[in-house]
Amino acid sequence: MKRVRRILVTLALMIIVAAIAYGVISSRGVAEGGAENKVVVVSPHPIEFMKPLACEFEAQTGITVEVIRCGTSEAVSRIQDGEKIDVLWGGSILSVGSYEDLFLPYTTENEDSFYAEYRGAGNALTCFTDVPSILMVNTDLLGDITINGYEDLLNPALAGKIAYASPEKSSSSFEHLTNMLYAMGGGDPEKGWDYVEEFADNLSGKLLDSSSEVYQGVASGKFVVGLTFEEAAITMLKGGKHVKVVYMNEGVVSTPDGIYINKNAANADGAKAFVDFMTAYNTQFYIATDLGRRSVREDVESSSLVAAKEDIKILQVDKDKVIGSRSDWISRFMGYMGEDGNE
Questions:
Q1: Is the pLDDT of residue 17 over 70?
Q2: Contact residues for 22 (Cβ-Cβ < 8 A; gap 6+)
Q3: Which of 72, 129, 159, 235 reaches 20 to 30 Å from 44, CA-CA?
């Protein structure tokens, strides 16, 4: 019975996606009920990931979703500047946690179904999906270069051929900076800076402006390898790109991204409905089955497209230390790149 239910859920959502492809469903901009029936969402997620989910939310609730796509850092800045935004959809807990005072305390009705480690992330932080950091490699360009982890990125043959976004602008890049420090420091982030300095040198001054430039740059052949997140690489694979996923042999930090309600939201009720929808069973099942993201719910299995968690060397980090050190770590890294961090 459970299997039949899952099949029906998948079929229903596939129909939605097909409708989008043929232009039957689209974000409507302004709902018939007026501005009060609209949720304004700012997000770093890829459009291909967001659109079917946002459109299904619209279809089920009658609430229009207006999406503003930008990097996590810019999204936070927009909220700080008082723009009319209801929800930040995306951005890792480690990156956004230091800005928790910008968001409205809310506990989703679905939190009891979350894995224990994803419950109670913070009064105003709701976990959305589990996002491992990975390396994405262009298999056409790799040649005889070996890439199994961070140490391999110091190979002089890769100088200037590594795609990495500024951790000042991209939460997935800050995740990788954190991952490097813990993995290459043997669990002590302070001992990881020697590696980070060498890594920065091998970037040859190339620092990208967004997470999308990383995975798109590798997929298009501009770079041999990129430091990105799992779902981005899965999306490229499903699109027929000649890439592969590498889970760093030194260890992988897998951190949830979140959904955050602006404390000054014009439509707080609509925002809460958005959070509940995105963490509901059917939505999370579709995300895991068709979109290559790992669910935060205990009752949703991971996609066959991703490696089993038990087959990955998962690293634990001190969440409070990372959140508290974020600005200092970014400034130090940008100093290695010859730039001043200006968060």
A1: no
A2: none
A3: 159
Q: Which two tokens stand for residue 80?
A: 């700080």
Tens-digit pLDDT profile for residues 53-92 = 999 999 999 999 999 999 898 999 999 999 999 999 999 9
Residue type present at position 40: V
Structure tokens at 12: 């229903």
Tokens 């199994």 locate to 148
Rounded Cα distance, 40 and 17, in Å: 21
> What is the 3 state secondary structure string of the chain?
CHHHHHHHHHHHHHHHHHHHHCCCCCCCCCCCCCHHHEEEEEECCCHHHHHHHHHHHHHHHCCEEEEEECCHHHHHHHHHCCCCCCEEEEEEHHHHHHHHHHECCCCCCCHHHECHHHCCCECCEEEEEEEEEEEEEECCCCCCCCCCCHHHHHCHHHCCCEECECCCCCHHHHHHHHHHHHHHCCCCHHHHHHHHHHHHHHCCCCCECCHHHHHHHHHCCCCCEEEEEHHHHHHHHHCCCCEEEECCCCCECEEEEEEEEECCCCCHHHHHHHHHHHCCHHHHHHHHHHCCCEECECCCCCCCCCCCHHHCCECCCCHHHHHHHHHHHHHHHHHHCCCCCCC
Q: Are 113 and 270 in contact (CB under 8 A)?
A: no
Percentage, residues of the chain above pLDDT 90:
75
Give the pLDDT score at 3. Answer: 46
Pairing mode, strands 126-138 and 243-246: antiparallel
Residue 105 neighbours by CB under 8 Å, 6+ apart: 123, 124
End-to-end, the C-alpha distance of the chain in Å comes to 51
In one-letter notation, the amino acid at residue 312 is I
